[in-house]
Design goal:
The complex is a heterotrimer of chains A (473), B (202) and C (290). Chain A is globular, with a radius of gyration of 23 Å. Chain A is 77% helix and 0% strand. Chain A is built from 15 helices and no strands. Chain B has 202 residues and is mainly α. Chain B has a two-stranded antiparallel sheet. Chain C is an alpha+beta fold and 290 residues long. In chain C, the strands form three sheets. In chain C, strands 4-3-5 form a three-stranded antiparallel β-sheet. The chains are: A mainly alpha (473), B mainly alpha (202), C alpha+beta (290). Chains in contact: A-B, A-C, B-C. Chains A and C meet through helix 2, helix 5, helix 6, helix 7 and helix 14 of A and helix 1 of C.
């Protein structure tokens, strides 16, 4: 590369190789493990006494393990990795200090592991979506900051001045996570606040994590992939800016449920914000519709399929959350599996699928190795059907459960039984998602292994090639 | 698969996506403004205007204030009833009729219906043991200082209730009177006998 | 947007606004709360949990009970009841006086089956006229504030839970799911420690068709020694151990049950008014004012 020329996409991809391999391989492993814990958790509803003698498998430990691994093990590393690649490619610049980012990634995965062991041992913090104990949280924070700094430096060294929408989203997500995570760690674990302020901070954190951070990271990938894969320009820059501002301004106030031991003003603000999220949802829908309409691209089970299903899930999940925030509905759906259903739809349906789309797009470019399209297609079908089988029965089961809970003449157990069919189908969905996760892991690991095997092969061939000069006539 | 790992599968100079500069649709902006207006209206109705002491379903401080109990002077009735039923009713029966070999009746009892309440107050504060005649019947039991753990106000409420329930009608007991009785009792822990009780002023 | 500064500015504005709203302001409003007085008896509320119950809170947290059980009571409304206790000496005078305030009550049925509720109003002020009328003719009346709602109808509490109920909890876990019943007042609703222990060991033995998992690892199965342990669970049927064995709760089980029995939130507070009910147990877990 000369002093004035920008690096080619190939060079940029090569520079991303080490951090992305580290981030994505770890993420894939954690995804599989989280599915295992998810299955264990769901077994509680079919065979409650299965873990009567074993604390680790009980719902109270398997469920936080599932959510910890899904969010901190899979979602954040893959989001960060995809964001790094997007900034590098869109800025037409090679990654700054890839080795340090890879070190940060390894430190992050260590923190996830420490958190997992602590949760299995019962040292959960007790806050949903933030179950890891203080020491693990500190490790994760330091790891994220280490990575985020060099990702940002990569951005500052960019050769392409104009910013594409995806870049705003990635930059905002780099800024968002350290602030919300450090606040949560400080005010919940290190200098705990008193009383229900804990709940307020915990709900603020989880709302920002699930409704803002995941949205920023997922939309960054979506706004890149959809135009790219359909060969159309993104429609439009201003709509994307509108999405950006509305997600930031409204999304950050979501998180506090209607039923809470907090003063009325807090849950009212949060409910209003959750309903306002319909606005960015419709904007995203418009962007996707206008960008892809008429495009004659067949997705064939590849990245485009994942991405389209991701957007659909995002819209459905946001709509479900907005409906559930209306007081008349909340009276029925609060405290039921409804929230778990639409959160699952958001995590698996929107974020995970979008990450799969992005990773299946990025990994072949970075490793130089094609991923078997048949395996990718199987993964797509398994993940999509699995997600629908998991989320939709939970949403419906939650409504049925809520109706029974609201009917005070019905005994309490009727409400749990009303959701039972939802659990049965949901477990089937978990199984499909678990198999899909295994395929994803296989795809990622095989990519990486094939890459290094090919290098080894070339090196070996170079080393053992007969030099013409050796032949003496 | 490519033999050269440094060569990606796709084009070496693939173009990055671009964005058009089409203007934002107006309907989206109008929808946002409408929803904002509805949210503001909702907050006005249900948000309690940032008051930390207003919890749903209450709408305002005035609303909660309007539900605070009046100082009507009759609270001892419900408070005393609660206290009685949690502790005394076990032996004296919830309707004050007493239980044989557990506790003598309080309804219509001359020990309860004295004009001045002082003697009555001493009984739960210290206890009563040995033979005693209640409503013409002989009783010989052992009552512990069941009222010692109560505050002055609580015991006053309790005794006021006892003196005015089940057809009883007698002046209420005040916290001051209980305090005075405690001073008179001092350190005594030995339960009273009926004779000792009669020596205490009414 | 042209540069990262705009992006960071947008992010900073948005995040600091919600940080101020949901972290800073709640801390200022609620985070320095200390014991408050109940209304009207001015008892101190709440009291911190004693040692074993505090340990039990840690067991509750480590077992992840919050993922199935909530600890907050909701409320949809409130009614103010006027209860006639005593009709006074002259029934006719009383009925006339009542009738002047509420015409429809001027009939003999109003005075039968006392004490009984004769009117429902929106707030205490709405009952003033009736109370004055009745006490004026020598009758006795009381006015009760009764919160209403699905949770309250289910017996899960007498009033909604508020911030004051949680100020001494080490980790506040109001919960967002009810796979199992709400536990905010389980200490008054299910006050028998033996029931609680049996329920943890074998839920189906205490609640028919219960879906709660068994927590046998909180207990120890021992051979019965010379005499059975005082602590041993009294189990019958399928859940009883084999002859010659007994089930004894471990420290953790005792702590957890102590914690559960300490869960009550029915003291009447200014922000969550309720008339102390004539329940079988003392109304609150508040400390009496001296």
């Amino acid at each position: 590369m000369t002093a004035t020329s920008t690096p080619s996409p190939t060079q940029i991809d090569s520079s991303c190789r080490l951090p992305l391999f580290t981030l994505f391989s770890g993420a894939a492993v954690w995804l599989v493990l989280s599915s295992v814990f998810g299955l264990a958790a769901s077994m509680t509803f079919h065979k409650p006494d299965m873990f009567a003698d074993c604390a680790v498998g009980t719902y109270g430990r398997a469920y936080p393990a599932w959510s910890h691994l899904l969010v901190y093990g899979f979602a954040i590393p893959s989001g960060l990795g995809v964001g790094l690649w997007l900034l590098a490619r869109l800025g037409r610049v090679e990654v700054a200090k890839p080795f340090l980012i890879a070190v940060g990634a390894k430190l992050w995965h260590l923190g996830v592991l420490v958190g997992l062991v602590a949760i299995m041992n019962g040292q959960t913090s007790g806050y949903e979506w933030f179950e890891l104990p203080r020491y693990a949280a500190v490790i994760l924070f330091l790891a994220f900051v280490l990575m985020a700094i060099w990702v940002f430096v990569t951005y500052t060294r960019r050769n392409e001045e104009a910013l594409y929408p995806s870049q705003w989203f990635v930059l905002a997500s780099l800024f968002w996570f350290p602030w919300i995570f450090s606040t949560a760690t400080l005010l919940l674990q290190i200098f705990p606040v008193r009383g229900v302020v804990q709940s307020s901070v915990a709900w603020w954190f989880s709302g920002n994590l699930l409704n803002v951070w995941l949205t920023l990271s997922g939309l960054a990938a979506t706004f890149y992939l959809l135009p790219k894969l359909t060969n159309r320009p993104l429609q439009s820059h201003y709509l994307a800016m509108f999405v950006f501002w509305t997600v930031l301004i409204f999304g950050t106030w979501t998180g506090i449920p209607m039923h809470s031991p907090l003063p009325a003003w807090m849950s009212t603000l949060s409910s209003a914000a959750t309903v306002m999220m319909i606005v960015p949802m419709l904007a995203v829908g418009s962007i996707v519709f206008l960008t892809t309409i008429g495009a004659k691209t067949d997705c064939r089970g590849g990245s485009l399929c994942f991405s389209k299903f991701g957007v659909l899930s995002f819209n459905l999940a946001t709509l479900a959350a907005a409906i559930a925030a209306c007081p008349a509905v909340a009276r029925v759906t609060d405290f039921t599996w409804f929230a778990h259903g639409h959160t699952t739809l958001r995590l698996y349906g929107f974020f995970a699928m979008t990450m799969f789309a992005a990773i299946y797009h990025i990994l072949p470019r970075v490793s130089g190795v094609e991923i078997c399209p048949r395996r990718t297609k199987s993964h797509f079908w398994l993940a999509m059907i699995g997600t629908l089988l998991l989320a939709v029965p939970m949403i419906i089961g939650g409504i049925k459960q809520g109706l029974k809970l609201a009917d005070v003449s019905a005994p309490f157990l009727d409400s749990t039984k009303a959701a039972m069919l939802g659990f049965r189908i949901g477990t089937l969905g978990e199984v499909l998602i678990a198999i899909g996760a295994l395929i994803f892991l296989a795809n990622v690991l095989l990519s990486i292994l094939s890459h290094y095997r090919a290098i080894a092969k070339t090196a070996f061939a170079d080393a053992t090639a007969i030099q013409p000069a050796e032949v003496k006539l | 698969m490519n033999a050269d790992p440094k060569q990606p599968c796709s084009a070496t100079n693939e173009a990055e996506p671009t964005a058009t500069t089409t203007a934002m649709p107006v309907w989206l902006l109008s929808l946002m403004v409408t929803l904002l207006f509805l949210s503001a209206w909702y907050f006005d109705l249900y948000g309690g205007w940032f008051e930390p002491k207003v919890y749903a379903p209450y709408r305002s401080i005035a609303h909660v204030d309007g539900l605070q109990p009046r100082k009507s002077g009759e609270e001892w009735r419900s408070r005393g009833k609660v206290l009685y039923e949690s502790n005394c009713a076990l032996c004296h029966n919830p309707d004050g009729a007493g239980k044989p070999s557990q506790g003598p009746p309080l309804a219509g009892s001359e020990w309860v219906l004295t004009t001045g309440a002082n003697r009555l107050i001493h009984i739960p504060l210290v206890g009563l043991a040995g033979p005693i005649k209640v409503k013409g019947q002989d009783w010989n039991l052992n009552m512990a200082a069941m009222g010692a753990m109560y505050t002055d106000q609580q015991l006053a409420d309790l005794l006021s209730y006892v003196r005015n329930a089940w057809g009883n009608k007698a002046p209420v007991v005040t916290a001051e009177q209980v305090k005075q009785a405690r001073v008179e009792i001092g350190n005594r822990s030995q339960a009273y006998t009926a004779d000792e009780l009669m020596k205490i002023a009414e | 947007m042209k540069s990262s500064s705009t992006v960071f500015l947008a992010a900073f504005i948005a995040l600091s606004a919600s940080w101020a709203g949901f972290v800073l302001v709640p801390q200022l409003q609620l985070g320095r709360a200390d014991q408050a007085e109940t209304v009207p008896s001015k008892d101190k509320y709440p009291i911190a949990r004693p040692g074993l119950a505090a340990q039990g809170a840690e067991v509750y947290r480590s077992l992840g009970c919050v993922y199935c059980h909530s600890q907050q009571v909701g409320q949809q409304g409130v009614t103010v009841e006027v209860v006639l206790l005593d009709a006074g000496t002259n029934a006719t005078t009383t009925l006339t006086a009542i009738g002047k305030v509420k015409l429809e009550l001027n009939k003999p049925e109003t005075l039968t089956g006392l004490p009984k509720q004769i009117a429902q109003v929106d707030d205490i002020a709405g009952s003033d006229a009736l109370v004055k009328a009745i006490t004026g003719v020598g009758g006795k009346v009381e006015v009760n504030v009764i919160p209403t709602g699905a949770d309250i109808s289910r017996g899960w509490g007498k009033r909604r839970t508020v911030a004051q109920d949680y100020i001494f909890d080490s980790v506040v876990q109001p919960g967002t799911r009810r796979a199992g019943p709400d536990l905010a007042n389980v200490g008054s609703r299910l006050a028998d420690p033996n029931w609680q222990l049996n329920h943890l060991y074998a839920p189906k033995s205490t609640v028919k068709d219960s879906t709660m998992p068994a927590y046998r690892f909180l207990f120890e199965k021992r051979k019965i020694g010379k005499i059975p342990s005082a602590d041993a669970l009294k189990l019958t049927g399928d859940s009883a151990p084999l002859a010659g064995y007994e089930i004894v709760p471990t420290e953790k089980a005792h702590a957890l049950v102590a914690y559960l029995l300490s869960l009550r939130a029915d003291a009447p507070l200014w922000e969550s008014p309720v008339t102390p009910p004539p329940a079988a147990a003392p109304a609150t877990n508040s400390v009496a004012a001296k």
